[in-house]
Amino acid sequence: MSMWQTLVHYLSFPFVQHALVVGVLVALSASLLGTVLVLRRLSHIGDGLSHVAFGAMAIATVMQLSGDMLLVLPLTMLFSILLLQGNRRARGDASLAMLSVSALAVGYILFNLFPPRGGNVSGDVCTTLFGSTAILTLSRQEVWLSIGLSAVVVGLFAVFYRHIFAFTFDADFCAASGFKLRLYNLALAVVTATVIVLAMNLVGSLLITALLVFPVVSAMRVYHSFRAVTLCAAVFSVTAALLGILLSILAGTPVGATIVAADMLGFILFCALGVLKERGTKA
Amino acid sequence: MALITCDNLTLGYEGRAVLNKLSFAVHAGDYLCIVGANGSGKTTLMRAILGLQPPMEGQVVLGDGLKRGDIGYLPQQSAAQRDFPASVWEVVRSGCLKPGGPLMCYTPAQLALARQSMQRLGIENLAGKAYRRLSGGQQQRVLLARALCAAQKVLLLDEPVAGLDPQITAELYLLISRLNAEGVTILMISHDIQAALRDASHLLHLQPEGWFYGTRAAYLQHRKEELA
């Protein structure tokens, strides 16, 4: 079979189609959220929360819950709100690092103490950390939940785009104009937790930060307005996710790691484009 | 009726007062400079005037039809802001956003106001430029234009010339004086007492041992007595 035929063959399977749809939507919402987090210098919070989500996932697996997300989502949301709403001390460098590694350690201990029936420990841990094949084994319920939640995130960005720009650029000014900062931070915390839990299915908890950071940082290399950066990051992220999923099917590599590798290559490409564009404007 | 009246205001954090029993009033057309050393409570006072911090005692009263959100604010820039990917036009028009305003788009009136604010500050030719590529002085003009979109009557400026070179500083002071002459009430936090004595109509000097409020002439007299 040629490569093309292999691809067409795989694409006829519903689980591959689901993976593509969910992958694209999750990558899209992650790039939008990432734009806000990176520009507000909060991307390390996203990283910390992804490890919290790992711990939560361990609890869900040990408890053998049928819908993992029903436990993981509220728990991650709780920590997200505590970190983004609470005082600045809670999100300091060191305390966040402690929270991160504690969640990882407790999660790993739980996996080992209560190995899931019929599963193997290192396999489960690897899946949760690196996503491996999780995106291809989503249940119908999880597929719809992912589609629904991603759609809500993208919808929120479309409706509140101008306000999101204003808050991201200068929250103090917005507060002075009479906007409620607490409400905005609460919404940001809820959306952050949602996107991180969704992205864990796609790339696993160790690699989530890549989905948040690479698209916007790449876009900033080439574009200088908020609108162009947001749109470019979205296109970048979706393209990398599509390429990553398709390549992983063809080459048999882990899905999450392949997507992140595509992001990384894209970043290098955009760095080069940025340099070329700079020279072009100077010449 | 004064625009802003601070009545017996005590401000602080966690029960510890930074400012004690402060009383003064700002009238339409005033140019008030708030001077004082670091930690004397200048920023705390500004946050209280903007309604971002509840006073421990006393109150801030807005009068003359002035409402919360009607004060144009020029905050000090953060490092993240200087490197923010945004066009000048995106930044300026974001000043038009108000709670309860239209969500999905700017109204033609808002966009006209944004254009007019840029003209007033002489930056209409920068509209399509990248904010992070501008010089410090140009960035301050952009943020001033944004503040003028939020409010046309009163501006609150937090050390607007910090980090600017002398010539740009002089130009910015001239611009602020011109806005004041056009009828905009100015409240400015400043380290630069010489400039305050030159431009301001009133001064508020915050010191750990107390505060002084008065017209420029009264402040000069007060300083002379202190030195004597």
CATH fold-level label of the largest domain in chain B = Rossmann fold
What is the count of distinct domains of chain A? 1
What's the CATH H-level superfamily name of the largest domain in chain B?
P-loop containing nucleotide triphosphate hydrolases
Strand content of chain A: under 5%
CATH C-level class of the largest domain in chain B: Alpha Beta
Cα end-to-end separation of chain A: 49 Å
Would you tell me which CATH topology of chain A applies? ABC transporter involved in vitamin B12 uptake, BtuC
SSE-based structural type of chain B: alpha/beta
Compact summary:
With 283 residues, chain A is mainly α.
Notes on the protein architecture:
The complex is a heterodimer of chains A (283) and B (228). Chain A is mostly helical and 283 residues long. Chain A has a single domain, classed as Orthogonal Bundle (ABC transporter involved in vitamin B12 uptake, BtuC), CATH 1.10.3470.10. Helices cover 81% and strands 0% of the residues of chain A. In chain A, helix 2 runs parallel beside helix 7 and helix 3 packs across helix 10. The N and C termini of chain A lie far apart (49 Å). Chain B is of the alpha/beta class and 228 residues long. Chain B folds into two domains: 145 residues, Rossmann fold; 75 residues, no CATH class. Chain B has a six-stranded mixed beta sheet, with helices on both faces. In chain B, strands 2-1-4 form a three-stranded antiparallel beta sheet, with helices on one face. In chain B, a hairpin with a 2-residue loop joins strand 8 and strand 9. In chain B, helix 3 runs parallel beside helix 5 and helix 4 packs across helix 5. Chains A and B meet through helix 8, helix 9 and helix 12 of A and helix 3 and helix 5 of B.
